[in-house]
Amino acid sequence: MGRLTGKKSRRTLDLGMTVLMILVMSYQATGNLFHELAGILLLLLFLGHNIMNRRWYRALLKGRYAGYRSMLTAVNLLTLVSMLAAMGTGIYLSQDIFAPLLGMREAYLIRPFHVAAGSWGTILVSVHGGMHIRLPFWGKTKAGAGKGSAEKSAAAALRKGAGTGK
Question: Mean pLDDT, to the nearest integer, of 51-68?
Fold first, then answer.
């Protein structure tokens, strides 16, 4: 079995996380036990995703922060915080899997935080994924200049929106 850093492994992991995000957000249709199991699997894939992208954490304090990098870093950190909050409160709210380990407790105050963190996490994960997607036709724009990356086009749009236009 190959290392978990190849493009196929990353795409498989990202696809798995996407499917699980949809299933986790379908709580009313799937029920609590499935919600908790899917949440645990999502947590494991989330940890794997962050381990696979550990170079990003190492590079946080290096280099310049221009418009696109600043925005991407903000989105990534907000996504990290919201997902950890959703998963942490989810473990605390557990009624099936972690309940025997944690014992009964008053959780009615935690549920709104869990729902809010999960909702923000879903929005931020969508933005995060959109900022990383590469489309071949994007390279035909003036900003992309043959690179074929959404990053160059997004950076150009940010510069234009900020009034620098350079």
Answer: 90
